[in-house]
Specification:
Rossmann fold; Tyrosyl-Transfer RNA Synthetase; three-stranded parallel β-sheet; two-stranded parallel sheet; binds tryptophan
């Protein structure tokens, strides 16, 4: 039987280039080799998004984005986390097998504490229990569907390790191999996508390139990429340039060599470098952009896709949770 890959997408903002190259594109590749499960982690987003209208919008945007880039809801299981309530029951069950120390040691939590300390606030200021217990819910996401492989960014590896450890504790306690032990899969080629200023592309740095801008605003945004003060005549080092680092991610080897030559030859100003990048990007985004706009104008279709995914996901989750309930003695 094909191995199963599962990945969650947190709807916390407008989809940007970093989401596509770092998450959407590699996730969609998986469907070639694995039985693929994709879900919108809306209850994970609730740890930070506290406006109903915003959360609803982000869920719609990200659903449309995945479909626009070619996710096939027939060939995969594509659902919204909150549509599968069994996950939350499992989350509680797993929390009773999770040492509290795991959560204390979670990098994401420790980062928040460190930031609070730096700001001379209380250690736990602005940290809600959802944020603290986040890795348990994430374990439930993964273990509910017995995923073998979980493609994630490097910052999420520790969470997958928690899921493995929690699964092992549960299996050992009941003397049965109820849960598969998931493996993290980190794609090195897409480690970090940089933003306009060369830092990681992130909404919190306000350095993103939103994916579905119209051509004019897209070009404007690209013109904001920070470059050095070399004159047009000077030969340029492509590997020391934010524009090239982004452009490169859209090119095959031959195309990349051709663009490198233009940089190295001299006589290319930054305006031209940005224009070349814009043209490549715009070509690749044209069709998805049209499809995205079409999908957003048809919310009934988005709902139908998610309803179909919910049914497929629950066909797995409901009987599996029944087995777990029986094992732990609540039935
Ligand atoms: N925590 C992941 C992120 O921030 C999103 C996520 C939630 C996830 N549940 C998951 C990823 C389960 C993989 C598997 O990107």
């Amino acid at each position: 039987m094909a191995q199963r890959a599962l990945t969650g997408i947190k709807p916390t903002g407008e989809p940007h280039l970093g989401n596509w190259l770092g998450a959407i594109r590699p996730a969609l590749e998986l469907a070639r080799k694995y039985e693929a499960y994709y879900f919108i982690a809306d209850y994970h987003a609730l740890t930070t998004v506290h406006t109903g209208e915003a959360l609803r919008k982000y869920v719609r945007d990200i659903t449309a984005a995945y479909l626009a880039f070619g996710l096939d809801p027939e060939a995969s299981v594509f659902y919204r986390q909150s549509d599968v309530p069994e996950i939350f029951e499992l989350s509680w069950i797993l929390s009773c097998f999770t040492p509290k120390g795991f959560m204390n040691r979670a990098h994401a939590y420790k980062d928040f504490v460190a930031r609070n300390q730096k700001a001379e606030k209380d250690d736990d200021a602005d940290i809600n229990m959802g944020l603290f217990g986040y890795p348990v819910l994430m374990s439930a996401d993964i273990l509910m569907f017995n995923a073998d492989v979980v493609p994630v960014g490097a910052d999420q590896i520790q969470h997958i390790e928690f899921a493995r450890d929690i699964a092992e504790k549960f299996n050992r306690n009941y003397g049965e191999s109820v849960f598969h032990l998931p493996e993290p899969r980190v794609d090195d080629s897409v480690k970090t996508i940089i933003g306009l200023d060369g830092r990681k592309m992130s909404k919190s740095y306000d350095n993103t390139i939103p994916l579905f801008l119209d051509e004019k605003p897209l070009q404007k945004r690209i013109n904001q990429i920070v470059t050095n003060s070399q004159t047009p005549e000077e030969p340029k080092n492509p590997d020391d340039c934010h524009v090239f680092k982004l452009h490169q991610l859209l090119l095959n080897d031959a195309e990349e060599q051709a663009v490198r030559k233009v940089y190295l030859a001299g006589g290319m100003g930054w305006g031209q470098a940005k224009k070349m990048f814009f043209e490549t990007l715009n070509d690749q985004l044209k069709a998805p952009r049209a499809e995205y706009n079409r999908l957003l104008a048809d919310p009934g279709h988005l709902d139908a896709v998610l309803a179909q995914g919910r049914d497929k996901a629950r066909a797995v989750a409901v009987p599996f949770l029944e087995r777990i309930r029986s094992l732990i003695g609540v039935r």
